[in-house]
């Protein structure tokens, strides 16, 4: 690959460099290179991480997402003034459709310069009428806050944080946990209801929070408490009526995926059903951040297609950031980032992200959301559930047999 230094005339026509003064452009020009490559050359692979941003100067780039969506970017268009598929890990494979000339610049340099990225940073959205690309300021606001480390993240409620930390200390006793749980009467009552529910049919009823925690176990208690407070988080963060309905639907989907994931984990060696439930509840947490930002854009509440596109572009990365901030393990982070990568296949053994992928497909069955998605048997994750011993038909029967358990989870977390 032959590279030549960029000049400031090229940079000044690109976004966000058009917001720089001449001195900043001179600095940038020393750290940006113009490249020429043949047709078929791959600038970046889907899912990869690197230190570069790319701008198209000549030719056509072909972008393919993980779900097969295809976008073309042509030099000289408005879209070519913006960095190409800049989110990382990469959301697209970027391939030269023709011989191309492009600019390569270090991402770190953009952050280090003392300016905020232009409010014109674009989002790649396919426009059905013009087959082009459009922009939305919501995407720009979130992206700007992300790269400038001022992203507004939700906080995990205090009781969930304290219980998680206490239970993670090996010396924590059931009595200590019960004392803390009882500071929230609603959570205490829910734990007792679960301990007396269908899963423990035939056992003597418990009549105290401490007995309930003893029956459930500390790990289950920790995960259930997080699940209970998440429901309130989804309700309290959003105030716009249309976005509130969207948040309610999101929570209902998360509960459904969590309940199904719990059942799938029960038949998959090495998987904890309680952990799988919580991973299902949290796999779309990044979407909550987007909805909270969207409250400042009233028109977007009524434009479901535009909102869904922004969500699809950003929720995985945002979800990973939130869960790391909340000190969840990498299994949770991976599920948030990759639970809709249907062809994902990193290892022969199942992990929690595989469970979340299969649980999502089950939750979509019989709905419009299944349109365009692969069937269960076509997904690598499905072949790892229960050591690959399930057929799609057997999997459906398994969930049908567990419908009482799934219904109880729905009732407890939705009520």
Structure notes:
About 6% of the residues have low confidence. This protein is an alpha+beta fold and 415 residues long. Helix 14 packs antiparallel against helix 15. It has three domains: 133 residues, Jelly Rolls; 81 residues, no CATH class; 179 residues, Hypothetical protein af1432, CATH 1.10.3210.10. It is elongated. It starts with a strand and ends with a helix. It contains 18 helices and eight strands. The strands form two sheets. Strands 1-2-8-4 form a four-stranded antiparallel β-sheet. It has a four-stranded antiparallel β-sheet with strand order 3-7-5-6, with no helix packed on it. Strand 5 and strand 6 form a beta hairpin.
Distance between the termini: 60 Å
CATH fold assignment of the largest domain: Hypothetical protein af1432
Provide the low-confidence segments as ranges.
112-134
Query: Count of helical segments?
Result: 18
- For the record, the CATH class of the largest domain is Mainly Alpha
Q: What pattern of helices and strands is seen along the backbone?
A: EHHEEEEEEEHHHHHHHHHHHHHHHH
What does the overall shape look like?
A: elongated
What Rg do the Cα atoms give?
Answer: 24 Å
- Class by SSE composition: alpha+beta
β-strand percent reads 5-15%
Number of domains: 3
CATH superfamily of the largest domain: Hypothetical protein af1432
The CATH architecture term of the largest domain is Orthogonal Bundle
Report the helical percentage. Answer: 40-55%
Q: Specify the biggest β-sheet.
A: 4 strands, antiparallel
Q: How many distinct beta strands?
A: 8
């Amino acid at each position: 690959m032959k590279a030549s230094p960029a000049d400031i005339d090229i940079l000044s026509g690109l976004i966000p460099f058009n917001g720089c003064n001449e001195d900043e452009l001179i600095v940038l020009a020393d750290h940006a290179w113009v490249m020429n490559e043949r047709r078929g050359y791959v600038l970046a692979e889907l899912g990869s991480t690197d230190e570069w941003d790319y701008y198209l100067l000549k030719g056509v780039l072909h972008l393919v997402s993980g779900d097969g969506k295809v976008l073309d970017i042509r030099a000289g268009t408005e879209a070519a003034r913006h960095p190409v598929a800049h989110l990382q890990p990469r959301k697209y494979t970027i391939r030269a459709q023709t011989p191309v000339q492009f600019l390569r610049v270090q991402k770190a340099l953009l952050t280090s310069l003392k300016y905020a990225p232009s409010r014109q940073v674009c989002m790649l959205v396919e426009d059905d009428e013009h087959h082009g690309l459009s922009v939305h300021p919501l995407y720009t606001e979130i992206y700007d806050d992300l790269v400038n480390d001022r992203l507004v993240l939700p906080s995990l409620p205090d009781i969930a944080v304290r219980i998680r930390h206490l239970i993670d200390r090996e010396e924590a006793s059931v009595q200590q946990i019960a004392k803390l749980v009882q500071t929230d009467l609603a959570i205490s009552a829910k734990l007792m209801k679960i301990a007396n529910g269908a899963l423990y049919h035939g056992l003597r009823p418990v009549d105290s929070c401490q007995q309930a925690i003893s029956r459930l176990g500390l790990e289950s208690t920790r995960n259930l408490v997080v699940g209970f407070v998440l429901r309130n988080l989804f309700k309290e963060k959003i105030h716009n009526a249309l976005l509130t309905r969207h948040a309610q639907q999101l929570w209902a989907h998360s509960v459904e995926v969590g309940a199904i994931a719990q059942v799938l984990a029960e038949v998959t060696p090495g998987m904890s059903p309680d952990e799988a439930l919580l991973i299902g509840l949290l796999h779309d947490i990044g979407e909550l951040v987007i909805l909270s930002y969207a409250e400042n854009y009233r028109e977007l509440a009524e434009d479901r297609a535009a909102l869904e596109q922004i969500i699809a572009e950003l929720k995985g990365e945002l979800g990973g950031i939130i869960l790391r901030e909340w000190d969840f393990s990498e299994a949770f982070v991976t599920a948030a980032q990759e639970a809709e990568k249907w062809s994902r296949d990193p290892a022969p053994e199942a992990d929690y992200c595989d469970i979340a992928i299969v649980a999502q497909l089950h939750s979509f069955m019989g709905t419009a959301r299944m349109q365009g998605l692969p069937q269960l048997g076509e997904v690598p994750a499905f072949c790892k559930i229960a050591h690959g011993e399930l057929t799609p038909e057997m999997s459906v029967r398994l969930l049908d047999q567990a419908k009482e358990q799934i219904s109880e989870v729905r009732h407890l977390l939705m009520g």
